[in-house]
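Reposting from the mailing list since nobody answered there.

I have sequence plus structure tokens for a pair of proteins and want to know whether others read the tokens the same way I do. The first protein:
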Amino acid sequence: MKFRNPFQSATDRLISKEVEHKLYEKASIDIENGSIDRGVMTKAFSNAQGDEVKQKAIYIELMVEHYKDEIRAGEELAKVLATEADKAKERQRQEEILRQERAEEEREAREEAERIRIRDEQWARDAPQREIQDEKDIKMAWLGILLIFIFAFITIAVLINIQ
């Protein structure tokens, strides 16, 4: 007993029946044209227990099932191929993301190198000014040290004179 798929619409059932009718027609035409699958015919003969009238009917049923199996196999193959195509698309998408990430990293590296180059050039341009400032700082430091010595000398002299 065959169970009806409760999720299959009336349209889908009609299409399935139409396809099934075409498969019976194909089996009949194949018999008329002499295009017979000897293995299936032998199985039909065995199932018919030697009755040639039943043999032809069983052969047609077996061939329709065979055609349905081929259709299902084709659909499964199409799904597998679609899945493989989806996987290929996903790989391509991932590769594109990686290319974009690498390009972004390279752009950032170039920008950082440019910032460093500009900083170094500014440092080089400012070197004479820094040297002048360094010389002034050194002179001020020596002046400070000199003042400390003078103050210390005066303090020692005053302390000596006080005694």
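The second protein, same order (residues first, tokens after):
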Amino acid sequence: MKSRIAIAVVVASCVGFFVGGYVNEILMEPEIVEVPVPVEVEVVRCEEPEKEVIYLEAEPIIETVEVEVPCKLGDFESTQELEEWLASNYIDEAVMLYASGKKFDCDDYALRLIKDARKDGYEMYLQVLMPRYRRPDNNQLVTQNKEAHAICSVIIGNNLHFIEPQTDEYWLVAQVD
């Protein structure tokens, strides 16, 4: 019974809504709007004046531009060549500071040494030593308990060498072939 009453109320509401809209249209007076009288306007189109093009003879401009041509990187031929190159590179003697206050640490030194080596045509790699790393040649502890350390590595012949960029110290790690 309640559902029939609810349906009747909904139907009555819809009928009332639509009937109200129809009655509103019939009874409402239309709004009268005055429309201004159209005025004819003469459109005058401007023509572009003719442009005169003048060609001037000019001397060709020749500039000398220095271009960095990538070269094929090579390995050091010997440990002596590595030692001489490290002696000529001063990254180990530099005290680096960032303007932002960021600390210039081991990875920054390593990446700078790699950049310098590649600029001079040598292949060099970034190497990360895990905590408690000991050098294989003298068993010296290089890193402490919880810290990793960034250094560089090179291949000379069939030998892999690690380089400490902050001291120019290097040591044989392993034979690669």
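Reply #1 (J.P.):
I read it the same way you do. Residues 79-175 form one domain.
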